[in-house]
Amino acid sequence: MTEHRVDVEDGEGVRLIAFDRPEVRNAFDVAMYQAVTTALAEASSNDSVNAVVLTGRGKAFTSGQDLREMAAIAIGTAGPEAGKGFQQLLDSLQSFEKPLLAAVHGVGVGLGFTMLAHVDVVLVDETARLRCPFAEMGVPPEAASSFLLPVRMGWQRAASVLLLSEWIDARQAVDSGIALRVVPEGRVLDETMALARRIAAFPPHGVREIKRLMMENLRPSIAAARQREESAFAALFADPATNPGLDLISGLRD
Predict the structure, then answer these.
(1) Distances (CA, A) of 142 to 15, 65, 90, 160, 231
(2) What CATH architecture is 2-186?
(3) pLDDT (tens digit per residue) in 47-92
(4) CA atoms of 220 and 226, how far apart (whole Å)
(5) Using an 8 Å Cβ cutoff, are 101 and 195 in contact?
(6) Per-residue pLDDT tens for 104-125?
(7) Could you give the 3-state DSSP secondary structure of residue 155?
(8) Strand extents, DSSP E, 105-223
């Protein structure tokens, strides 16, 4: 079914959640945040779903936060719900107890990169390119990436990604530990679904216990990193000298 800009399909123990705003490279707005969060919550409580795959429709995984919405939040013209969707999605990713996989093709920018650090198994199409543009945008990192990217990638690679705002390609994503393997063009979703179906066929309680044990020591550090990042965002946006809102809007108009 397709609802609220997200395509959800269930079968063989696997839920596929596909971001479905291809006209804006699957950028996340309020409606999409809410839809993905709901789809994850329903998968969590559904005993027939034993694994979840995230992907994007069209030519991109996701270009991250909708910058028009982000700029509106920065200058105070967004609605009261605008900032909540992002936090709710991160809460869902952080607490999700079942295996979570991602099939990445095209671009993954901002959240399209940082959410992968919350995913258990990531496959990347050979066309995939990832980027964290936070330094260029003048904003702190997000989604506990200040903690998770050094853990996943090592300090030097994480510092390069976060401080230089440069693209990394599919092979670099694998070499840095963000992804498991590169898949030939056009095959990434099929191969990711095959892995998910294999996991879903195993005894679910044992699989969930494995993930719980793997995540046990990480979750407090993830939560603390998110709090630090959110405090940094709040301080940045509260100061007119550092608030990037007008610059974001200016960039959109160029």
Answers:
(1) 26, 11, 10, 16, 11
(2) Alpha-Beta Complex (3.90)
(3) 999 999 999 999 999 999 887 776 666 656 666 666 789 999 999 9
(4) 10
(5) yes
(6) 999 999 999 999 999 999 999 9
(7) helix
(8) 107-109, 121-125, 129-131, 168-169, 181-183
> What kind and span of H or E run contains 14?
strand 14-19
pTM, whole model, 2 decimals?
A: 0.92
Return the residue matching tokens 């995913």.
119
CB 207 within 8 A of CB 199: yes
In the Cβ-directed half-sphere of 249, how many Cα atoms lie within 13 Å? 11
Q: Closest Cα partner for 22 from 75, 79, 63?
A: 63
Residue 115 CB partners (closer than 8 Å, separation 6+): 54, 93, 102, 143
d(CA 242, CA 207): 45
